Amino acid sequence: MKAANHYLNWGYKVFDRRRDEIEPLLLQALQDSRAIEIGLYAHDPATHDLLDSLLPGSECPLNTHLDHRRLNVFALDDEDLISLLRRQIENSLLWGASYGINHLSAFTLTRRPEYQEALERKLTEQLRILNRLCREYQFPVHIENTYHEIDFYRRIMLSVEREELDQLHFCFDFGHAKVWSMRPLRAWLDFLAELDRTGRRLHFHLHTNRGLSDEHLSFVDAEWMDLCHVDEYTTPWNSFKALAILEQRFPQARKVMEVQPSEARENLQRVLEEIERIARRDALISA
């Protein structure tokens, strides 16, 4: 069992949007040597000045989230976008990020069976482009699940393996799978274990919702709203037990809370307290 302050692969996500919003949380994360993810969506100059001054040389586990609205994999046949992507990777490396996160697309892709072969071919071509760029910079990228089912991501990751795209890994978003997948969490965990066995590295985005939309609720809010009980997505676990299972099965993976900065510290503290309580209880039961 670990003290809460030893779960340093658990951390916070902030956006490059408003300096006043993220500065207190960023300073706290740096003080605690806690994991940080920077979302590169707004490109606010004052926020980038802050990141330039605080992040280089820090010892925090750090990664960035590339601008998936414009620079997603599906869009990477546009040379102008490649130039923007280079800039984001260069900024990431300047700050000390070890990898980035990206989406396959900014929108839902076709589910029609007759188009699946063409879609896979298109995405594989784009993933080759991304992998070449990642290899040039020695900056891996994790592909995040969004609008599609496990079988779709399994096909994509098998293509990544077949094409020997060595710089591409996977990011599992807990809340996305609850909204956009019909499969239970345990099926996703089995898929992640498959990836782990093949040497693909994992990253986690953790937030929850009411199952209707991608709300990014904190687990503190969800607990208050009575949303942390066992449901069809998390069964046979409640939300806190599910998070404890994630830590048990994938202890080396970075786990980032995607919640509002004002709630981030309380949310992480509550989650880690529950994970530690569950670990102590399980140890007593096994003894």
What does this structure look like?
The chain contains eleven helices and eight strands. It has 287 residues and is α/β, with parallel strands linked by helices. The chain has one domain: Alpha-Beta Barrel (TIM Barrel). The chain has an eight-stranded parallel β-barrel, surrounded by six helices.
What is the CATH C level class, in words? Alpha Beta
- Please give the domain count: 1
- Pick out the low-confidence regions: none
Strand order of the largest sheet: 1-2-3-4-5-6-7-8
Shape: globular
In which range does the helix fraction lie?
40-55%
Largest sheet: 8 strands, parallel, barrel
What CATH architecture do you see?
A: Alpha-Beta Barrel
Strand content: 5-15%
Mean pLDDT figure = 94
**Strand count:** 8
Q: What is the structural class?
A: alpha/beta
CATH superfamily: Divalent-metal-dependent TIM barrel enzymes
CATH fold-level topology? TIM Barrel
List the helices and strands and how they pair.
Blueprint: E1 10-15, H1 19-32, E2 35-39, H2 45-54, E3 62-65, H3 68-71, H4 79-95, E4 100-103, H5 116-137, E5 141-144, H6 150-162, E6 168-173, H7 174-180, H8 185-197, E7 202-206, H9 219-224, H10 239-249, E8 254-257, H11 261-286
